[in-house]
Give the backbone structure.
Amino acid sequence: MPSTRRAFIKQSLASSVYASIISSGLLTTTDLQAAWIPENFSPATLTDTLTKMYHNADMTDSEAITLKVPRVAENGAVVPVTVSSSLPNVSEITLFVAKNPTPLSVIFKLSPTMEAFVSARIKMAETCNVIAVVNSDGKLYKTHQEITVTIGGCGG
């Protein structure tokens, strides 16, 4: 609760402006939501998921991609992952977990003005590779790192 009358008036004015913008349709909540593509997140093997998403396109191993993950994750339910790249014109960064029931973890779509740096917390069922695929100028590049999981996060 605001401690002064001036703070109360500021908060009331800001709330009424936001309510007006949303009710007028200038800003909708669907503009801010992530897209859910069920066929990409269906249970499958890593090979099937990569084939479905990239149609057997060539992926080049690249040292221009930095995948920062812990070597050992005590709890597979919350594994921090950071990906950055010095490749030019990165439009997408995708993370896969090789032995998860659903290998695709997350897809980040980047605008041309964004820096190629993303961070997420993912679930891992068991010890396996985490794979980062970067789309740069329409070409696919990848890197991977094995993470040892002591307590599985996908029901394990």
The chain is about 20% helix and 35% strand. The chain has a mean pLDDT of 87. Residues 1-33 form one domain.
